[in-house]
């Protein structure tokens, strides 16, 4: 097997000194006991830190809570799988028979794990600065798309603004139920938005928290509808 | 205020180019709005990755699940607070009035957060390799104390072996209760060890899982007693 993968080298912007590391990163556990699971552990760590460091530098005005939230969105499986598809990583994966037949080449979890393993392999091959550059390159668009203002605003505010832009009337919130003992009540509210087929529920330890959760779900539903 | 902290420089094995970074890392939010919370976010990331990379290199025979478990023990608050005490970090902290009075200098969470912030500050000051060296130095004893064999064994086996070494007779396990619907039962067991004043409980989704949890708690109790 050639260890070079010139297309991947090109799209990653990184050429491995030791191509065997890249091969291992692309080998799923269904294929071999010499697979990418340990490299994935390493790569998950380096990705989390690389993104943390990038966000820290880029958004000096955000608090650690806001940075944590932003990072969670950037390192989650769906985001990683999307990046892996852009790299056409699926075509380079070594999969066992069962995974091959069941479409493992395009499964989010397999793609995301393999991309993390590739990050781990680059760290092994050339150290932190090398993999930090690769990660920053891959995330360039995602990072450019972050609006720090919107991170700073709470979900109710963001929902309100989204609806205003579309000239939809304002959402309404209703408390449906308060459950639990007086000292540990949970509030269940619903948020009705004219654009959504049915109200969206939220739950929290305060009415405000429940409303924020409902607003967040309503906004996600609207964004998914309008995407 | 002097930004030098020669004792801390000595015990960390690191001299800051920009002493203002160290000052910020040592400033609790109760003291100033220019505090260590963002540096803690950065430092948490670099610590997790530095420990991951060290464990990956040191224990080529462990799986990613075992590495994850080992890392969790090394980066948890109690471990960090212990390291911070060894550095006498509490004496250098900038705390507000309330935290000062209530003993914040020796609170686990404040110490652990400040040590993470110091790691973040070193990364900012000099990059990953510099902070990786400092972390490896601080964790030298903890890492040397890891027995990869014991990580590989489950708690019941380890408890058994510990008791054998001390010539204490074997533990006994009893199911106390099975709760929940048939398809989602939880087992509550107790583990009796001659050396412990009372049986230790464990809970799990299977009898085996509950026994392992009880064994783990019993072993911890024995180790604490014998420490």
Show the helix and strand layout.
The structure is a homodimer of 227-residue chains.
Chain A lengths: L5 H7 L6 H7 L11 H22 L5 H12 L1 H10 L10 H5 L6 H19 L1 H11 L1 H5 L3 H5 L2 H11 L6 E8 L6 E7 L7 E5 L2 H20 L1
Antiparallel strand pairs in A: 1-2, 2-3
Helix pairs in contact in A: 2-7, 3-4, 3-7, 3-8, 5-7, 7-8, 11-12
* CATH superfamily heading of the largest domain in chain A: Ribonuclease III domain
From the N-terminal CA to the C-terminal CA of chain A, the straight-line distance is 41 Å
User: What best-fitting shape of chain A do the alpha-carbon axes yield?
Assistant: elongated
Oligomer: homodimer
* Tally of DSSP helical segments of chain A: 12
Please tell me how large the radius of gyration of chain A is.
22 Å
**CATH architecture type of the largest domain in chain A:** Orthogonal Bundle
The overall average pLDDT of chain A, rounded, is: 91
Number of strands of chain A: 3
CATH-defined topology of the largest domain in chain A = Ribonuclease iii, N-terminal Endonuclease Domain, Chain A
The fraction of residues in strands of chain A falls at: 5-15%
Strand line-up across the major sheet of chain A: 1-2-3
- What are the segments of chain A in which pLDDT stays under 50 over at least 5 consecutive residues? none
Largest interface, and how many residues on either side? A-B, 23 and 23 residues
Class of secondary structure makeup of chain A: mainly alpha
H and E order of chain A: HHHHHHHHHHHEEEH
Count of separate structural domains of chain A: 2
